[in-house]
Amino acid sequence: VNIPKKRNTHCKKCVAHTEHKVTLYKKGKERRVAQGRRRYDNKQRGFHGQTKPILRRKAKVTKKISLKLECSKCKTKQQKVLKRAKHVELGGEKKSKKQALSY
Fold first, then answer.
1. Is this structure's pTM higher than 0.90?
2. Are 54 and 40 in contact (CB under 8 A)?
3. Mind listing the domains of the chain with CATH numbers?
4. Pair 32, 40: CB distance under 8 Å
5. Which tens digits make up the pLDDT trace of 75-84?
6. 59 to 1, 54, 63, 98: CA distances (angstroms)
7. Which of 2, 26, 36, 91 has its CA 20 to 30 Å from the CA of residue 80?
8. pLDDT digits (tens, 9 = 90+) for 31-65
9. ∠ CA(42), CA(45), CA(51), 5° rounding?
C-alpha cells in the first residue's frame, strides 16, 4: 500500500478539514521500571531458566496499518487504523496507467 505523506482530513480541535502530516505508528521504548517488567525480571532471577512461556505460534501474517496524523495548524495528533497489508510504503511514487515496466 502506498500512502501519501500529506492528507486532507478532519481535525477535532480545529473543527474543520485541514492538511495533516502522515507518519507510521511505531511502538515506544519499553520502560525498565514498569510493574510488569519488574515482576518479570524478578521472576527470571536465579537458577530457574525461562519461567514464562515464549509465544512461538503466530496467529496473523500481516499487521494493521496504523497512521499517526498531525494537524498542520494546531499540531494536534490523532491515529487512524487502515486495513491489513503485508507491505506499506509512505510517500512512494504514484503508478501511471500507460507506462511500460522498467527494470
1. no
2. no
3. 1-29+63-83 (3.10.450.80)
4. no
5. 999 999 999 9
6. 22, 14, 11, 40
7. 36
8. 999 999 999 999 999 999 999 999 999 999 999 99
9. 85
